[in-house]
Amino acid sequence: MAEVEQPFPEESVLINASSSNGSDLANVTAAKFVSTPEGTAIAYGSLVFMALLPIFFGALRSVSCAKSKNSSDMPETITSRDAARFPIIASCTLFGLYLFFKIFSQEYINLLLSMYFFVLGVLALSHTISPLMNRVFPENFPNKQYQLLFTQGSGESKEEIVNYEFDTKDLVCLCFSSVVGVWYLLKKHWIANNLFGLAFALNGVELLHLNNVSTGCILLGGLFIYDVFWVFGTNVMVTVAKSFEAPIKLVFPQDLLEKGLEANNFAMLGLGDIVIPGIFIALLLRFDVSLKKNTRTYFYTSFFAYIFGLGLTIFVMHTFKHAQPALLYLVPSCIGFPVLVALIKGEVTEMFRYEENSAEPLEDATEEKEKKDM
C-alpha cells in the first residue's frame, strides 16, 4: 500500500492508495497492488531519507543565508502574527482548491498548475544546485557576469523594477533545470517530480525563517490543529490530495523491484510535512550557532525527533490502514524533544529569548564572557 502525504502547504494526510502515475491517485480506499515487504521497506525508507536531505542541508544553508548581505539571498522572516494567520490562510486555500476541483474540470486546473510549478521548479532547482556547480566548475572556467535590468520612467524619476545579476554558471544551472522541467511536463516521471520536490523543500527550509522559538510553537501548534481537523473531520484533504497534480510531494514506487523505473504504485510524502518542521529545526540550528558552544545539541535533537515522528506516522498508517495527519506525530516530537533537552540543561529561558535579529548581540555577549573567563 502506498503512502500519500500532504501537498505543501495545503494538505497533510497519510492514506492508503494506488496511483496510476507519479501524480494521480486511482484508488483511495484500497490498494489494488499488494506490495512485497521488501518493496514497502524500500519505498518508506527512501521517502524518509529524501525527507531528511532538504531538512539537513536546508538548515545548514539557512545559517549562511541569515548572515548574507546579498538582497537576492535574504530570507523571508515569519513573525508570530504570520504564524497565527497561516492555518487560517491554509484552510481557506485548501477549501478553495476543493471547490475548484468540484466545479471545474480537473484536467484544465492541473494543466495550469503544471505550467505554474514548471516555472517555480526550474528556478528552485537552479538555486539549489548552484553551490554544487560552483565546486564542479574548474577555477579557469570563463565565468562572465550578466545583469538583467528593467526600469520605469527616465531621468531622476527612473525607478528599478527588476535588477538581477547572474553569471555563466547560473545559466548552466538554469539550462539543466529547464531540461528537468521539460521532462516533468512531458512525462510526469517520478524522478523529475522528486528533483523539483527536493528543490522546493530545500529552498523552503533555507529561505523561510522563524524569528523565534515562540513563533515556531505557534505555527506548528496551529497547523497541528489544522491537520487533524481537515483529515479526521472532513474529506476535503483527501479529495484535494487525490486531485492535485504538481511536484508538491516526494514519491517512491513500491513496485520498483518488479517494474524498475517504469513502476507506478507509489508511496508519497507531501512537502508540507518536510518544510514546516524543517524551518523549526533550522531555527534551532541557528540558536545552537548563537550559543557559541561548538555543539549542535538542539539541532541534532530536533532532527532525530523528526525521524522518530515520521517513523511513528508511517507505522500507525501502515498498521491501521487509515488516513493519518502527519503533523499529529511530528509536531509533539519536534517541539517536545528540544524543550525537554533545554529543561535538562537549564537553557529554556535562553531558547525562548533567542531572536533572529538579536543573534549578533547574543554572539557578542558570549564572546565578551569568554574573554573575561580567559
TrEMBL record:
Do the record's keywords include Endoplasmic reticulum? Answer: yes
GO MF term list: aspartic endopeptidase activity, intramembrane cleaving
Its GO CC terms are: cytoplasmic side of endoplasmic reticulum membrane; lumenal side of endoplasmic reticulum membrane
The entry's keywords = Endoplasmic reticulum, Hydrolase, Membrane, Transmembrane, Transmembrane helix
Q: Could you mention a single GO BP entry for this protein?
A: membrane protein proteolysis
Task: Note the topology in the membrane.
Answer: Multi-pass membrane protein
Where is the protein found, in the record's own terms? Endoplasmic reticulum membrane; Membrane
Which Pfam families does the entry link to?
Answer: Peptidase_A22B (PF04258)
Transmembrane spans: 41-63, 83-101, 108-129, 207-232, 266-285, 297-320, 326-344
- Return the InterPro entries for the record: Peptidase_A22B_SPP, Preselin/SPP
Q: Does the keyword Transmembrane helix apply?
A: yes
Q: Which family does it belong to?
A: Belongs to the peptidase A22B family.
Protein name as catalogued: Histocompatibility (minor) 13
Q: Which species does the entry assign this protein to?
A: Erpetoichthys calabaricus (Rope fish)
